[in-house]
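Fold it.
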Amino acid sequence: MERNVKQLHEIDLSKDGVFYIKDGKINIVDTLPYGYGTQTITWQNGKVVRTELAYSRKL
């Protein structure tokens, strides 16, 4: 018999960030170290498989 168990987690809503759930755990996408950039999340079969971070610094 499969049990339907709810898990509750708290996240700090005062901090900016991008979160995703994988295998029942909350993960945060790495933030940019500085400057401007993009964050790309790649999905495959309904699951996150890769995150990419690209950034540049204005001189």
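Strands lie at 19-22, 25-28, 36-44, 47-56.
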